Amino acid sequence: MGQMRKKVFFLALSITFFIILGVVALFFSLKNKSQPIQKQREKKEEFRIFNVGTQWSYAGPSEEIMKLTITGKKKINGIECLVYEKSIKGKTFGKEYKTQDKKGIKIYAIEQEGQLVKFNPPILAVKYPLKIGLEWVSQFKPSGKKIKSELITSKCKVTEYKRVKVPAGVFKAYKIEHYTYAKEDKKKKEKPQSFDWYNPEVGIVIQENVSPTFEVFTHFLRTYSLQ
């Protein structure tokens, strides 16, 4: 049971648009909460399609900067996906394979420590257009070496819309709560495992991950270059 919960938590980190920071998140501790300026009146915002060459960098409490770069394309189960590569000091520690269209962003697979884990069907990580009160659910089975192919549920809901301040600037963003759990993990249905502050033009500007020991790891957008 303990091993299964660890695997579910690993998948939970992968659901978020930069999905999942995996084990690297453990190098950071909570620091400098987001600085809300004021709540904003909701308005329909156009989303940006991200292309190869787009790069974001995120700052945690330590001096290490994590970079997220769209490095190319790769087919997963016959579907052409963008490759999102995560690195620290030039060393890659994880990849995510995603698609994006007018309906939202889907995650087809993740790769970490040389292991590829596919999701069937893919996980809907962000649903367009975003608005307060929007909820969506993905049910999928992961597949890969040493991965138990059990049904996992990913539930997301949009709870706030306001301006937030990060090192990269001030952005109007939606708060997306992520809940990820297996059938028997009833407690995980009640509390989110991560939060994203998402701007449709830029992407994730703040991400908060909650560990199994209830520690919160916060990462802020530092720089970005959109293609």
Q: Would you kindly provide a written description of the structure presented here, covering whatever features stand out?
A:
The chain is mainly β. 6% of the residues lie in helices and 56% in strands. It has one domain: YmcC-like fold (Beta Barrel). It has one helix and 13 strands. It has a twelve-stranded antiparallel β-barrel with strand order 2-3-4-5-6-7-8-9-10-11-12-13. A hairpin with a 3-residue loop joins strand 11 and strand 12. The radius of gyration is 16 Å and the shape is globular. The model is unreliable at 1-38 (pLDDT under 50).
How would the blueprint of this fold be written?
Blueprint: H1 2-15, E1 35-39, E2 55-59, E3 65-76, E4 79-88, E5 91-101, E6 104-112, E7 115-127, E8 135-143, E9 152-166, E10 169-182, E11 194-199, E12 203-210, E13 216-225
Antiparallel strand pairs: 1-9, 2-3, 2-13, 3-4, 4-5, 5-6, 6-7, 7-8, 8-9, 9-10, 10-11, 11-12, 12-13
In brief, what are we looking at here?
This protein has one helix and 13 strands, in the order H-E-E-E-E-E-E-E-E-E-E-E-E-E. With 227 residues, the protein is mostly beta strands.
Mean pLDDT: 83
The ordered string of helix (H) and strand (E) elements is HEEEEEEEEEEEEE
Euclidean distance between termini CA atoms: 44 Å
CATH topology: YmcC-like fold
Helix content: under 10%
Widest β-sheet, arrangement of strands: 2-3-4-5-6-7-8-9-10-11-12-13
Largest sheet: 12 strands, antiparallel, barrel
Low-confidence stretches: 1-38
The CATH class, by name, is Mainly Beta
DSSP E strands, number: 13
Number of helices: 1
Q: What is the gyration radius calculated from CA atoms?
A: 16 Å
